Each structure stands twice: as structure tokens, then as C-alpha cells.
Amino acid sequence: MASMREIKRRKSSIQSTKQITNAMKLVATAKLQKAKANAEETRPYFKRTMDTIGSIIHKSRGITHPYLTERTVKNKGYVVITSNRGLAGGYNMNLCKLIMRKESDKEQSKIIAVGKNGRDILKKNGYAIIKEYHDMVNHPSYRSAEILGKALLKMYEVEELDEIYIAYTSFKSTISHEPQLIRVLPVDVEQFEAVESEKHLMTFEPNEEEVLGHIIPRYINSLIIGALREAVASEHGARMTAMDSATKNASEIIDRLTLEYNRARQASITQEITEIVGGAEALK
Length: 284
Prior knowledge:
Number of domains: 2
CATH superfamily of the largest domain: ATP synthase, F1 complex, gamma subunit
Structural class: alpha/beta
Number of helices: 5
Radius of gyration: 28 Å
Strand content: 5-15%
Largest sheet: 5 strands, mixed
CATH class of the largest domain: Alpha Beta
CATH topology of the largest domain: Pyruvate Kinase, Chain: A, domain 1
Mean pLDDT: 81
Shape: elongated
């Protein structure tokens, strides 16, 4: 059995850790509320953009546009949105596993890292990191989405990348977060539901192709900002859950150490009483 001094030292250390994890839980909870509101605020705009593109595509069957055209795939780009900080449970690893299961051809796969943890995990597993945008996850903004969207379009137009995907964690609830992988370019027309013309009466000037050339970049930007805000909300939710679990575990360890300390103290007292009684008997 460990000595009373050692048990007391361990208990004090665990109590300090518990204070830290509890404080981190409270911070993550506060940040989660704001991140959740931002994610929910973005969804209507994204839905309306999807409806608009769907209306154009279904109104003009057989439309041709570089952003819609499939081509021979030599290189695939993956925008991987993770966190810059750890202590978020399996949040980062779960998303990286999604990429590793999807794409075993590491030579063909190019990673655009948004978040240091995803970069480190994928780089360690042999994937090439071609661009990094780590500040975006600290303060997601539409301006950041425009910068990344413009870079993705340029890489696609010069055929540096033939397919581009976004990997992020979708926020379902405080304790539920789902890794997602969606194709950005070329735009997958099958993902757009048919839109009834009675609901969306549109005239396109000068033509559908030119309108798509303007609206698809905005669609990509809205996709990026949506993914960023969903990922940030998921990160804070995952960290809150992880810190809550760590705090509970610390409390259980403290309770166990308290019981162990009391037993050691009782054994010490019993031994002292036995020695006193033995000494008294010897003096008779």
C-alpha cells in the first residue's frame, strides 16, 4: 500500500488537474453557444444558394460549364478542416480516418490543411500537404472562405487538381458530431434536387453558362464558410464533452484516493495503538 504522504500528493495533483479540466469545459461551453448560433445562421443562405443552382441546372438540361464537367482524375484535393488545439477527444482523428479510408492512394491525394492537428496527423501518415490555412478555424469569416474558395478554383482551372473535396465535422448536437466528405469541384449536379419552376421563376441574362460562372464560386464560398462554422461548433462541443468526462474521471480518482488515504490512516492509527498496548503490557 502506498504511503499516506504519496497518496496525499497524488490527490493534490488530481485536484489541480480537475480544476483545469473543469475550467476548460466552462470555456468550451461558452464558445459553443456562439459557434452553434453562427452555424445555424449560415444554413439558410447555403440552402437558398443550393436552390438557385438547382433551378439553373434543371431548367437547362445538358448545360456545359467547366465547373460541371467531369475529367480524367490525376490528382485529388482534400480540404481538411480540423482544430489548431487538442484536448477534444477523437474530433481530429475521426475526420482524418475518414480521409485515410476514402483515399489510400497517397500519391494522388493532395491535402489543403485548415487546422494544425489534421495537418500533423495526415503528414505523419504520408499525405502531401500543399497548402495551409490555420487561422481560419480561429475566426471563421466569409472573407476567409473567399480566399480559400479563390485558391481552390485556381488550382482546379489550371488542372493542378482534378477533383476537390471538403472534409469537415457536421454539428448535429452538443454530443453528436459526424465527419462529412463532400465534393466541391466539379460540381455534382446529382446533389441538387429538382426545383419547381412555379416556385422559382427566373430569366438568365446573358445566358445560363455565364450566370453559373458567377454563382458557382459563391456557392463554393458558402459551402466553405458553412463547413468552417459547423466544424468550429463541433470542435467546441467535442472539447466540452471531453473535458466533462475528464472532470468526472478526476472526481472518481479523488474519491478512490480519499478512501485509500483513510484506510492507510486507519491502519497507521491501529498500528500505533497496538504498539502502545504492547509497550504497556511489557512494562507490567
